[in-house]
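Q: I have 635 residues here and want to know how they pack in 3D. Can you give me a structure?
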Amino acid sequence: MGREELEQKQEGTSEKRLGDNVQRGNSRRKNSERKKASPSVTKRAFLQYHSYNPRYFPLCFLWTVFREISPYFNLWMSAEIVTALYEGREKRELYVLVAVTLLGNFCVQAFQAFLGKRMEKALEILRDNEQRAFYRKTLSLDYDKMENPEIRRLRRKIRENSSINSYGVENMRGDLLSLMSCIVNLSFCVIFLGEMIPLMAAAPFHLLSLLLLGAMVGFSALNAWMSIRSNVAGSGNWNKIGDLMLEENRLGQGYDLNGMDCRIYRQQPIITELYEKLNRKHLRLFSEAAMKDFSLLFPAELVSTLAEICIYLVVCFYCTLGAFPVGSVIKYVGYMGRVVRNLVRLFFHIGSMKGNERYLKTYLEYFDIPNDMYQGSLAVEKRSDKKYDVEFRNVSFQYAGSDAYALQNISLKLKVGEKLAVVGRNGSGKTTFIKLLCRLYDPTEGEILMNDFNIRKYDYRQYLDIFSVVFQDYHLLAMPLGNNVSCEASWDEEKAERLLREVGFGERYAQMPKKLETPLYKNFDEDGVIVSGGEAQKIALARALYRDASFIILDEPTAALDPVAEAEIYSKFDEIVGDKTAIYISHRLSSCRFCDKIAVFDKGRIVQLGTHEELLADETGTYYELWHAQAQYYA
């Protein structure tokens, strides 16, 4: 979508919501997939996966060459030693052959070990980069997509498929290594069997030899076909088991057997019954899959045995005709047997890659999610006086997948330096109002202006920098206290300590042994400090102040504090904020009395706007009702 088209959209037309964008993107991808051959899915996934560490697969190929050449070398040397023994050659020649065998194996194993270590390191880098790319994609998504349930389920499904069943890119990697092994094996077979074919052609013709060769080729082809059929037919059952394992995993994540609620309300019997139900289903599916695999694989193994018998008969028959020495029976039987086995493996893993495509499609679908939010190009003026006037002009908003409006026809002007309190019942649209102001979402209808320009025209990153927000669901990181306050790799010690004291964290801070270096929580450090909910909220408040943004927004960040502590923090905040523009959301109306004006939200609309005294004078208003509903508990 071009910039001009987006500019037209922002001037008046309503935006399409996330659900429509995802459906449109999915439709385009499905149509594209129909046109392309199925291998393109695996090819694209491989190219993306390979880019995470281009050295890994070449190292794998070299390692495979040295690993697979060892049995061929041993077969060749064993044949030479047996022939030498049969022909009664000198001991010195036998010693040389044995020494060459031992030295050759040592060199091959040494190179293989060397490459194996390099390959392990390359694999670690590959996996780290893959994880980094996945999380970078997650962090780069528009916020509306981050909250979209379908996308959250998609992300969870990818990780579950990989960690529980090893489906997706990990399965593709394993299949590629196996295919690499098959191709290397078959290449060696062609090279080493090159001397056998002329010897067989030079031998006297015999009808039995032709019949044995035909039987060998026929049994080998039948074995390959039956292996492919068993892989395709059995994959459906194992996919069902994999999906059931995901369900079992989600059950374990969704219920905490050691949790307080589980113990108080004695929920263990209910959870145990659910587990037993899934286990019975799992056992039934596993039994069915195992029996089906046996019924399919047993004939394939029988045919494989017949093919190997034919190989022995063919080689022994030509040996009796004098086509090649007795010792060559060992290597030619080994070579031809490996041809048959690797052809079967080759087709098996091709079928496995075909079955893995549905998981690769899920993986690629996540990386294909487009970002539709217009990033803007107008620079945000950096004003030392922090003068940014904001106006909501007939703003309405619907969440994706919802027919109801979360906000409807909101019009509000917020002047520089004003203190605005936003109050209302749960679900009245207060937090949605803040999300639109911070441009985490764009309005469905109407527009939001800053200094007379639509906020969509401003550079997105620069616009975000003028806000400092403490949301209801804020998060602290398992990192040192200083990092949590500054949200940077370093911090201003004097500034951070001052702000922590100003928000009421000074007493707890004095008890911390390492001060700002003190790690929070014990995720990565046994010396980590566990802070209470109220203490965590104070740290989050200090973080908001540390940023020194033009707008300070508190979205019910003091819910874990008692009313007295909350009132104290808000009064201090009023002093700290100074001439900055501030917005406070709180269910405790007494904490918002110092604000210049109060906006009362109800069912997605602003039903009242004014000062505390003005709103309290209207005895029929929502604010009057809310105020007196709380006042009776403090009287």
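Q: Anything worth noting?
A: The domain at 390-476+531-634 is CATH 3.40.50.300 (Rossmann fold). DSSP finds 22 helices and ten strands in the chain.
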